[in-house]
Amino acid sequence: MKRIILGLAVAVIVVWGGRSLFAAYEVRLLQAPESWPEKGAALFEIKSGQGAGAVASALEDKGLIRSSWAFRRLLGRKGWDSRLKPGMYRIDENSDSEAIGRKLVEEGAWRIRVSIPEGLTVSQIADRLEKAGADDDGRFLPTAEEFVRAATALQVKKATGHKVPTKSAEGYLYPATYQIPAGSSAEDVVARLTEQFAKSFSSAHRDEIAKSPLSLHELVTLASIVEREAASDKERPRVAQVFLNRLEKGMKLESCATVQYALPRHKARLLYADLKIDSPYNTYIHQGLPPGPICSPGKASLLAALRPEKTEALYFVSKGDGTHVFSRTFAEHQQAISRIRGAGN
What we know:
Helix content: 40-55%
Radius of gyration: 31 Å
Largest sheet: 2 strands, antiparallel
Number of helices: 14
Number of strands: 8
Oligomer: single chain
Order of helices and strands: HEHHEHEHEEHHEHHHHHHEEH
Strand order of the largest sheet: 1-2
Shape: elongated
Low-confidence stretches: 4-18
Mean pLDDT: 87
């Protein structure tokens, strides 16, 4: 009997000791690998439809974890195995398995911060995205060429429900600061920007837009001209009304901003010869609004076009400080120009 009890005691000790050794071994497996000589950030992508097992195997293959088996057990214990999301991740190469699991589940995929200010064209936005999406590790946002090719009127219709009479999404790429998932396609990025336009303007102000004498496309076109002509948010509604007054009287808009858009490259100062460029966007030779927007207007300019300030002014001239002098007649306009030039001498 004593032998049986002694045998059971030994067995218990062996089993308990085995469990302790196993636990210690599993902890060891969950520690960071020692294969990386220096700290750094490794890129790792979870692809759509990839399960926890495939993710664990991919991490092991990349040398970021010691054991896919131990990592898979960790995900199950933490309830993380069903919370993995597709995307690109930057992972510290000296992180242990738990830190990696937490990053994949709680911190989310790597996003690239891109600020798009008001007044940029499709091409200018494309250049910003291309620069923001490239670093020493590679390219993680579309090239400028890919973005321009994807920025079509079809994307505008998908986002807003409105069909626009131009081929480009010019004017409908909403200015804002975006956190764009690394690895996004050009179509994904364009969709994000046009959907933000819909959320911030076309959907948010649907009833007002429906009551406006201008179509959505005309509103955005007018707003884009206001964006480039006015620097002061306070003046934007008045500038919008000046252009509307000129349209109502059958006068040409004569906006230098539209001529700049028509030119092959931007000029710091326009010449009289530039005002004769043969383009439907040249509002010095063509009446009415141009065929489409000349840039992406911000919220202040969009609302200025939608809610213009009542004024009888038909002209305005810059004072050189971001504000303008507004005039009802051409004679008053000429006098304002003379005063401003005189003050500058």
